[in-house]
TrEMBL record:
It comes from the Eukaryota. Residues 4-108 form the Amidohydrolase-related domain. InterPro entries: Amidohydro-rel, Deacetylase_Atu3266-like, Metal-dep_hydrolase_composite, Metal_Hydrolase. It comes from Geodia barretti (Barrett's horny sponge). One of its GO terms (molecular function) is deacetylase activity. PANTHER family: DIHYDROOROTASE-RELATED, IMIDAZOLONEPROPIONASE AND RELATED AMIDOHYDROLASES. This is Deacetylase Oant_2987.
Amino acid sequence: MEQGFISDVISTDLHSGNINGPVYDLPTTLSKFLNLGLSLEEVIEKSTTAAAKAIGREAELGHLKIGTVADIAVFDVIEGEFELFDTHGTMVIANQKLQADLTIREGKL
């Protein structure tokens, strides 16, 4: 990002080798980008509409429209001091993180 490259899409690449760290989950990954300087709006757009478009499913995923799947994640932005790690084990102290408060998948809580 310091060199002007900002990814079009944010995803976790979550698998058994990183679920216990440093990835953990999508809110943690989104928090890392939030603390790198992206706005909350950019973080959400890159992990929803841009991600759906990247896999050719923008007609059905990444937004809320009549006739599409109702997948909704409700986050709270928490203020404080939080340790975030990259894949090399480097830690930064972030002053914000996203916390998942509610998930609806295909219209079901």
